[in-house]
Amino acid sequence: MKPCLKTQPAAFKILREPDRLMIRFRTPHRALSWAVAGGGFRITQTVIWYRVHNGKSCIGDLSGYLEEKMKSEKLQTAVVLLTSADLAAYCDCTSAAGKIAARCITTVGLHNALRVGDPPGKPIRGAGTINLLCRISVPLSNEALIETVSVAAEARTVAVLDSKVMSRSSGLPATGTGTDCIVVASPVPKGRKVFCYAGKHTPIGHVIGRSVYEGVRQGIRAACL
After folding, report:
1. Is there a contact between 50 and 82 (Cβ–Cβ < 8 Å)?
2. Which of the following CATH numbers is that of domain 12-223: 3.40.960, 3.10.20, 1.25.40, 3.60.70?
3. Are 24 and 46 in contact (CB under 8 A)?
């Protein structure tokens, strides 16, 4: 799939199989997420999407199962995402400002669309989710990685609102799905300058917001076809 914006020199490879989408960074990256396996802060070179058919998983200790699976495949440091969305329909969007760039890989499913504050409930059968990886081209501090998650979440939410997706629970405008996950990553410094800010007033925040917004917007459009 062609990037929707100007592409930066490849910092990672995209490997796709029918039920797996794998991102392999060329160099170690610092990542932050709440992924079902490999979440929190960690150093990794791999982010993986697994497709779960019909939104089902019959495994009780899913996190433990995935950790063991990654160990058997020698991918112990991988960050792992789950979705029932079509992995072939992933979106690849890049935004650049000078020498700083952000590249966002997004998969979108909307059967589980909800508005923040909707009453809690069981996930909807066949639930889809919005999963995204936003890779920033420059090293970031812990604080800046946290800020990157905030900006990416804002961009995701605005894209959902602008696309007029409605909550399956309340019927009000949705702000995401009930199982969204965001992964942000930046290169391990290795002597390079570490950037400490990634808010909306900064070039870093600008490219994060633009790439994530466009990736989610295009993903929603594809999911609604």
Report:
1. yes
2. 3.60.70
3. yes
CA dihedral 74, 75, 81, 82 (to 10 degrees): -10
Helix (H) or strand (E) holding 20: strand 20-33
Q: 66 phi and psi, to 5 degrees? A: -70, -40
162-179: per-residue pLDDT in tens?
999 999 999 999 999 999
Write out pLDDT tens, residues 38-50. 999 999 999 999 9
How many CB atoms are located within 10 Å of the residue 6 CB?
10
Task: List the one residue out of 121, 187, 132, 186 whose CA is nearest residue 154.
Answer: 132
Spatial CA neighbour of 202 closest among 105, 136, 142 = 136
pLDDT of residue 2: 46
Q: 108 pairs with which residues across the strands?
A: 130
Q: Is the per-residue pLDDT at 113 higher than 90?
A: yes
pTM comes to: 0.90
Per-residue exposure over 70-100, b if at least 16 CB sit within 10 Å of its own CB, e if not? beeeebeebbbbbbbbebebbbbbbbbeeeb
Encoding tokens for residue 42?
């960690």
Question: Would you call 220 helix, strand, or coil by DSSP?
Answer: helix
Query: What's the pLDDT score for residue 88?
Result: 92
Q: Which residues does 74 contact at the CB level (< 8 Å), separation at least 6?
A: none
Token code pair at residue 4 = 């929707």
